Amino acid sequence: QLQLVESGGGLVQPGGSLRLSCQASGFILDYYAIAWFRQAPGKEREGVTCISSSGTTTVSANSVKGRFTISRVNAKNTVYLQMNSLRPEDTAVYYCAASRYCILAENTMNYWGKGTLVTVSS
User: Fold this and answer.
1) Distance (Å, whole) CA 13 – CA 22
2) Mean pLDDT along residues 46-64
């Protein structure tokens, strides 16, 4: 069964950090670009960042540049999202998704995880 499973979400204070993980099972992550999307309460889902299959190219939304870093360890079939300097507006369910190319477009994704909740609040 092909699956992406996110973990690492939780409650964090403004200015804090979290690291999310996206682990694949049932397929080899090496061949796929991986993207992170998020959906805040009452808002549409938006692309956050993505990384190419080789790890040499990343794309990030302006809202997270300089604060969020995406990385991958293909040997572990896992992609990470390091989130620093978190703000209340980062509160959302975070999803990882796999596709052929590093593009922050939902309709290009082949596989999706079920999401992990990140809450930034004091």
Assistant:
1) 22
2) 97
- What is d(CA 65, CA 22) in angstroms, rounded to the nearest whole number? 20
Pick left, alpha or beta for residue 66 (phi over 0 → left; psi -120 to 50 → alpha; otherwise beta). left
**Are 109 and 22 in contact, with CB atoms under 8 Å apart?**
no
pLDDT, tens digit, 9 for 90 and up, residues 43-53 = 999 999 999 99
Q: 38 pLDDT exceeds 90?
A: yes
Q: ∠ CA 119-24-49 to the nearest 5 degrees?
A: 50
Going along the chain, which residue ranges are E strands? Answer: 3-7, 10-12, 18-25, 33-39, 46-51, 58-60, 68-73, 78-83, 92-99, 111-112, 116-120
